[in-house]
Specification:
By secondary structure, this protein is α+β, with helices and mostly antiparallel strands. It has one domain (17-106): Glutaredoxin, CATH 3.40.30.10. It has five helices and six strands; from the N terminus they run βααβββαββαα. The chain has a six-stranded mixed β-sheet with strand order 4-3-2-1-5-6, sandwiched between helices. Strand 5 and strand 6 (96-101) form a beta hairpin.
Length: 126
C-alpha cells in the first residue's frame, strides 16, 4: 500500500481530480504494481490536485486519507461500470472521465491528461 497523500475524500471540490484504482483485492498483482508505480510520484500527483482512490470488491477502500466503506466501494464500481474481478483505472476531473484503462498506467500519463485540459477561460470561449 502506498503512503497517504494530503488529499480529502471529496473529489468533487474545485480543481480536484480523482484517480480511481479499481481492483478485486489488495492482493491483486496489477493493483500492487500500479500502486508501487504511483507511490514514487505522490508529491507530483498532489501538486496536480490528484486524489488517489483505492476501490475493492469485498473490502474497505480509501479516497485520499478517508476510509471508504464496502458499500461506497460497491457504489463506485457500479457508477464506473466495473465488473466483478475486473482491474480498472479511471481518472475523473470536473465530473468527466479523462482516462479509462484496464491495465496499469504511468504517472506521466495521468499528468499528461490533466495538463492537456483546457483552462476555464478557454472553455468559455474567451
Amino acid at each position: 500500500m502506498i503512503a497517504e497523500t494530503p488529499q480529502t475524500k471529496d473529489c468533487k471540490a474545485a480543481n480536484e481530480k480523482c484517480l480511481y484504482v479499481f481492483s478485486p483485492s489488495k492482493q491483486e498483482r496489477r493493483y500492487q504494481v500500479q500502486m508501487d508505480a504511483l507511490s514514487d510520484r505522490l508529491m507530483t500527483l498532489s501538486d496536480h490536485h490528484v486524489t488517489i482512490a483505492e476501490v475493492f470488491e469485498h473490502e474497505r477502500g480509501h479516497v485520499g486519507l478517508e476510509e471508504l466503506p464496502c458499500e461506497g466501494c460497491q457504489g463506485l464500481r457500479r457508477q464506473y461500470h466495473v465488473m466483478p474481478g475486473q482491474f480498472k483505472i479511471v481518472l475523473v476531473s470536473d465530473s468527466n472521465v479523462k482516462l479509462c484503462a484496464e491495465s496499469c498506467i504511468s504517472c506521466e500519463e495521468v499528468i499528461m491528461r490533466i495538463e492537456n485540459e483546457p483552462d476555464e477561460l478557454e472553455s468559455l470561449g474567451r
